[in-house]
Amino acid sequence: MRLKMKLNNKWSYIVAIGLSVIILILIGVRIAKYRSTNKTRIAQVNIQEERPLDIVFGNHDAKLSIYMYSSYSCSYCTLFFTDVFPELEKEYINSGEVKLILRLTVKSNNIDIQNAMKTAVCINKYGNYEYLHELLLNDSKVVVTHEFRDMVNSFIDKDIYVAECILGNEAEEYLNKNVQDYETLKLKGTPTFIIGNKIFTGYQDYEKFEQIITHHLNESNLPN
């Protein structure tokens, strides 16, 4: 009887170990499949190609690109720019190692918000974006004020290139493309960062960025 119990216990132990191994394998396969799917999706939408209306912080020839899908109405996006970006700029962007590519991603039927996003990408291309960037970070709701509408109109009146960009199809098509990327990649929330073939959803602190950047820069410095 005791021998039978021992055999049963031993068999139960073996079965438990076997099930654990199978579960770990399935989890591993699922993770690998998830990563592979992300890589495929990223390749499909040509994420790693700069576009004419991308808002780029840093040197265009930087070793590493960080793509940020963002909105000025997103509090965690603002937190990134106030708390994390200054350190990134100081340590990696100003040195020419890293560039941040900001892709405004806003799904809204509000005409003021649409015009503000068009103005942002067009001013970045043809004018001085820094002031407008700071203004929108400080208060995203400013876009619905008469003063902001007057400012947009003044940009249109003063510069034919800005006017054509805002009033034509260029800015609208670009912003729609950003939303299309967001939906194709099945991203969830802003900010979302894409570095290499990996997607990082939500706010990331400076230490996290430092870890990721160091890893990628070390990889890029390896001999072929």
Task: List the SSEs and their pairings.
Elements: H1 2-44, E1 55-57, E2 64-70, H2 75-93, E3 98-104, H3 111-126, H4 129-138, H5 146-158, H6 160-167, H7 170-184, E4 192-195, E5 198-201, H8 206-220
Parallel strand pairs: 2-3
Antiparallel strand pairs: 1-3, 2-4, 4-5
Helix pairs in contact: 3-4, 3-5, 3-6, 5-6
Question: Quick one: CATH class of the largest domain?
Answer: Alpha Beta
Q: What would you call the shape?
A: globular
Q: Find the structural class using helix and strand composition.
A: alpha+beta
Q: Report the major sheet.
A: 5 strands, mixed
**Mean pLDDT, as a whole number?**
85
Which fold does the CATH topology of the largest domain refer to? Glutaredoxin
Measured by DSSP, the beta-strand proportion falls in 5-15%
Cα gyration radius (Å): 24 Å
The number of domains is: 2
Helix and strand sequence: HEEHEHHHHHEEH
Could you please describe the fold and organization of this structure?
- The protein is α+β, with helices and mostly antiparallel strands.
- The protein folds into two domains: 1-44; 55-220, Glutaredoxin (3-Layer(aba) Sandwich), CATH 3.40.30.
- Helices cover 62% and strands 11% of the residues.
- It has eight helices and five strands.
- It has helices at 2-44, 75-93, 111-126, 129-138, 146-158, 160-167, 170-184, 206-220; strands at residues 55-57, 64-70, 98-104, 192-195, 198-201.
- Strands 1-3-2-4-5 form a five-stranded mixed β-sheet, with helices on both faces.
- α3 (111-126) packs antiparallel against α4, α3 crosses α5 and α5 packs across α6 (160-167).
- The longest helix has 43 residues, at 2-44.
- The radius of gyration is 24 Å and the shape is globular.
- The termini are far apart.
- The model is unreliable at 31-37 (pLDDT under 50).
